[in-house]
Amino acid sequence: MLFAFRHSLKLSWINLLGLIISHVLFAIGAILLVSIAFLFGAGGTFWAMIGTDYKDPAQLLESSIATGFMFLIILVILYILLIFIGSLCNSIWMGGTYAFSLEASQNNSSTIGTYFSKAFLYMFKLTWMSFIFSFVVVIPVMLVLYLPLIILDAVNIVPSFVLGLLFISLFIVAMIFLIAIAIHAPIFIIQEGAGAWKSIALSMKLFFRSIGQMILSALAYLSSFIIIVTVMYLIMLCLVLVLGAVAELTGNEAIPGVIGLIFLVILYLLFIPLTISFPILWISDRYNKKLRQHLFPPSNGSNEGHMHFRINQQPFNQPFTFDSPPSSNQPPKLDL
Hints:
The chain has helices at 2-49, 57-107, 112-121, 123-155, 160-190, 196-209, 211-250, 254-291. It is mostly helical. Helix 2 packs across helix 4 (123-155) and helix 6 (196-209) packs across helix 7 (211-250). The longest helix has 51 residues, at 57-107. It is globular and about 80 Å long. Keywords: Membrane, Transmembrane, Transmembrane helix.
């Protein structure tokens, strides 16, 4: 945790810049997509209306149905592309944050250059990993956990309060498992050179090899996030109360309102990057110090198995196997 405290402020202001850049890129991409969709829609509507006899209700109805169907297809495609662009932009700050954290964990220092070079280098892999995790891990886990409960509720065998307790308990268990897998998978992409599929497989393998430590990592991630957000809202609440009292005493609500709005924006800009930076710094350092050895144990009785390549170097090109540990102090190349 001390490691996370030392580096969190530096990473937070870099993360703020990364978040701004990713949001600007998303806005540009969204505007371009909407503009293209509008042009296609307008062109398609014009094409559909050519030759239509407006006095014939049947032709007019047929043309309207064709136009509506075309707009529906365009909206669906636009929605999918916006999700993809959003995930891509989200992967920019994710890759940068993990790269900075992992390099800081190895060298006790990192730079803005590492953040942005790795952010753009790994954004496609991280985006692909996010889609795989959502559709191949999250949805099946939820179905396996909750489908039996839905069946039990339908046949009305188990009392409702028991089903409610089971629902809450399974939800907590599922969230801890999914968070533990999700927060470690990017580490395998950035530090160990794994592909998107392999990163999730390695994260799941690590979970079942070290369940206790992975659960602690998930709880550490959640607790640090909750604590930072709670502190932020407590400060905001105190600020609102103080400025409200000032406005009440002076009878002037405009100036305290403007000052309050400025301070709230500043707090938001300070704390939101911190909610991202601190937990990932903590998790990255925990992985290198306590978890990595479960997948890459020391070889030949030495401590070298605990060492790994620095993220600004190329990984060792060696075939990957789940069963055989690497023979050198560098992990195998896991690219798919």
